[in-house]
Structure formats: C-alpha cells, structure tokens
Amino acid sequence: MIFVFLMNQQADKNSDLSSQRNLLGLSLEELRVELESLHIPAYRGRQILEWIYQKRVTSWAKMLTLPVALREDLEIRYPLAFPEVVTVSGSHDTTQKFLLRLSDHEMIETVLIPASPALYGEDSDRRTLCVSSQVGCAYRCKFCASGLDGFKRNLRTEEIVAQVLLVEKISGERINNIVFMGMGEPFANFDHLTRALRIINAPWGIHLAARKITVSTSGLTPRIREFADLPEQIRLAISLHGATDAVRSEIMPINQRYPLSELMEACTYYVERKKQLLTFEYILIAGVNDQLEQALALARYAKRLRAKVNLIPYNRVEGLPWDRPSQGVQRAFLAKLREHGVAATIRREKGHDIDAACGQLRRRQLYGL
Ligand code: SAH
Considering only CA atoms, which residue is closest to atom 3 of ligand 1? Predict the structure, then answer.
C-alpha cells in the first residue's frame, strides 16, 4: 500500500533558509566565534547545539536554559529554519520517501531505507538515509533520472543537515547509516558537503560515526583526492557502471573528462591514504554493460583495489529505453566477479513502487508534472 500524507511543518518564520548564517549550518567553533563577537560567553555555543542535536528542539523558543532576551536576539541573527515536509510516501517494504520544499520553493527528496531482518539478521535495526546534495544534477549520466531535468543549484550545509534531523523527528528513530546517493553529485558541492559531513559526524552534532557515512560519486577525480585528504574516515563509493572507457563514456559523459585510468589512480590514492576500502557501484543494464568481458575488466580493477562491488539491477526510468538484464545474466555476471576473488553482491532494491529507488529521483516528478 502506498500512503501519502501532508504535513504542515514549521511556522512561516521558520521556513526561511536564505540566511548564510542559518544555525543548522554552523559548526560549534563557528558558533562560538559568532557569539564571542557579540560578547556572549562561549559556553552558550555548546548549550545551543545541545538543544538542537541532543534534545532535538526545532525552535529557539524551546531553548529554555537561555534567557528570553538572548533567545530573541539570536533568533534574528541565526534563524533555526527547516525545509517544509510536503509529503511522506511509504511502500510495503516500508521504504519512505520524504519530499521537502526548500525556502526558494525548490524540491528535494530524501529516502529512508530500513534494513529487512531477512537480509541483515542481527543488523536489522539498520536504518539508512539516502540524502540529496543538489537540486537536480549537471552530470547527465544517460541512465539516471536525476539529471534529466538539468541542474538547479547546490544544497547549502543546513539543507543537508536538515534532511537527517527532519527524518529522525518524523520517524522518531535515529538513523544509523547515511549514504549520499540521493539527487545530485556530492563532490560538485564539495564545500557544503564537507561542512555538513563534519556536523553529521561531530560529537556535538548528529554524532554518527564516519564509517557509517558513505559518499557516492560519479568520479570527479580531483575531488576524490581532496576527499582522501580530509581527516575523517568517511567511506567512498564510486558509481562505475562501465569497466572499459568505451562502455563507460557511452553512458557517463564524465568519463570523457576523467577516464578510467585517472579515476583508478584517484581511487588508489584514497585507499592508500585512508587505509580504507571502497565500493564500486555497478548498475546492470541489459545489453549495455552486462557482458562477461565487462565483468572481467571490472574484476581486474576491483581486485587491484580490493574494492567491494555492489551490483544494482537497473531501475526503469520513464522515457529511457533501458531495462535490467534477466536474473540469469545477473547471476552469471556476479559469478564471474566471484570467480576472480572479488567480494560482490547484488543489491536488492527497495522503493520502486514510490519511485524512490536509485536513479529514480527526478526534479520534474517532484512537482507532479
Ligand atoms: N552522483 C552521485 C550520487 C548519486 S548516487 C553518483 O553518481 O554516485 C545514485 C546512484 O544510483 C548512483 O550509483 C547511480 O549511478 C545510481 N543510479 C542512477 N540511475 C539508476 C537507475 N536507473 N537504476 C539503478 N541505479 C541508478
């Protein structure tokens, strides 16, 4: 069953995200500097962030340990504003898609994916949130819905952080896994991405362990290197989808700019620098990239980097001609990888019925056009 309900979130005064100084976009350090310049003692910074990230209040008015006059003054300087939750759709496997309206009326989605006990056993309390990093996407991967309507703008730090806080508020449960696999190319929004990652990871913030956070990229190699240089041990996933330049360039225009040899060099840098393994995501598209020669080429790359391979049977996108291969072809592809000693799985996807699966998040559909 699909259910959709409307929610009237946040009073008008709280729905403006235009300020650069939105409280949700500030780190503890930045907040302290701001407060200092106003001659407010530094300990107030920690107190304020405790109200937001531990006690989870959504307005300044509820920060009861702050004198009223101070609250009122700070609210004007640093509004605490959230996007508006427009709809929440759920499917039978309980994947839920949250449609959020930003202050400039652009829409984004964030998807909550609870793990099924059958798949994860003891890990069944896993709740993964798939967050968006941009409105639209500029990279035009030919199979993906998110780029079909072009790129609109980057999300700001607070708009990324707010996705997590809002979903936790509505679902009443903590999220223990975050993947940047929603709409957009996270590495094309590097500054806001890294600022948001710090807030999500920090003990004074959402406090989710770095190894529980994965950023997925279509392969912006200079950014992969920069990402590897960050102090946090955040995981990396590469959307590979083709294991030879001919096939990859055909479906991912970015490969013409950063071909596989460069991409693999950047991946090697990440693995060596971080002492952390990475994941290759590989959509299986019938007749496009599902041949055994591709599996063999993929196995070579994966082995060299000791990367895990996540095979994703293609999700149909309206208006695009492609489909997923048969189960037999999928299994043969998987077997070929395993035969070469690669740790590979086929991802069983959720949320098809609400268009919340990978590659199905699309700007135009968000408006119901
Ligand atoms: N731009 C980043 C983040 C988006 S992640 C990236 O490319 O990694 C979204 C994931 O869904 C990517 O791995 C993407 O390649 C995959 N995807 C896109 N369209 C898909 C489709 N129709 N079926 C299955 N997966 C798809």
Answer: 181
Taking the C-alpha atoms of residue 7 and residue 325, their distance in angstroms, rounded to an integer, is 39
CA 356 to centroid of ligand 1, rounded, Å: 12
Question: Which atom of ligand 1 is nearest to 179's Cα?
Answer: 5
Residue 181 CB contacts under 8 Å (≥ 6 apart), including other chains: 130, 131, 214, 216, 237, 358
What does the pLDDT look like over 193-252, one tens digit per residue? 999 999 999 999 999 999 999 999 999 999 999 999 999 999 999 999 999 999 999 999
107 falls in which pLDDT band (50, 70, 90)?
Answer: very high
Residues 26 and 154 in one domain: no
Query: pTM of the predicted model, to two decimals?
Result: 0.91
**Pocket residues: Cβ below 6 A from ligand 1:** 141, 143-144, 181, 185, 216-218, 239, 241, 281, 283, 312, 314-315, 317, 358-359
Atom from ligand 1 closest to the CA of residue 241 = 15
Ligand 1: which of 180, 193, 280, 283 to mutate, most ligand atoms within 8 Å of CB?
283
For residues 3 and 145, membership in a common domain is answered with no
Closest to 61 measured CA to CA, from 53, 70, 323, 97: 70
Q: Are residues 306 and 178 in the same domain?
A: yes
CA angle 200, 204, 210 (to 5 degrees): 35
Could you give the CA distance from residue 48 to residue 44 in angstroms, rounded to a whole number? 6
Are 182 and 286 in the same domain? yes
Phi-psi region of 167 (alpha: psi -120 to 50; beta: other; left: phi over 0): alpha
Residue numbers of the domain that contains 227: 84-367
Q: Which of 31, 61, 81 is the last residue of a domain?
A: 81
Q: Whose CA is nearest to atom 25 of ligand 1?
A: 358
Radius of gyration of the chain (CA): 21
